Amino acid sequence: MSVVEPTLDLERELVGAGGVLACVDEVGRGALAGPVSVGLVAIDPWAPGVPEGVRDSKLLSLAARERLEPEVRAWVLAGAVGHASPGEIDELGIVAALRLAGRRAWDACLNALGEASLPRPSMALLDGNLDWLSAPPADLFAAAQPGDEEGLRSVDVPVRTQVKGDRDCLGVGAASILAKVERDRLMEELALQHPAYGWERNKGYGSAAHRAAILGQGPCDAHRRSWKLI
User: Fold this and answer.
1) Cα-flanking dihedrals φ and ψ of residue 62, to 5°?
2) CATH number of the structural domain spanning residue 93
3) How many domains is the chain partitioned into structurally?
């Protein structure tokens, strides 16, 4: 099967020369344990120095992701990864937890851009067909959105969703690399605290060995208790 080479074509359609675009992807959505993580990069898609070999992190080896992660950070104007914990996923549901993680990444990127006196993104490009990143419609009877108590800024720019964006769009692929590398490192740290589940290998996903360990040991506080674990 041929591998699709991602490009910056769509990113350049969305913002002109000198414009800044936020590219966003998530990892860990389907895992049984650990956080859901959202990578967000602010890019000038016309800028030189694009790292060679950037693509959807799922299509890259561990060694390739580790090599590319610092190259991606050197190329982008700003990059951040936001996380929502297993407890937040259980409390909020996965869509609201994704939005919370995305707001954390967005806020961190805006802070980095501001410190460098760089312009903020005028638009966001999000992998998939569901816009979980934008603030939900205002509801006079709803409670404050998760993250408001942290003072997080909501994503207040238009969001373009793109199916297979992580495969086809180089900027989204860059965001996926940051998210995957950082989440994998978090899962390796959690594996040291909870060695029975093999998270250094399965990264919290539902492998047969992981499910067998849950059956034998029971879940721990890093599992998503609201999910079907066995």
Assistant:
1) -55, -45
2) 3.30.420.10
3) 1
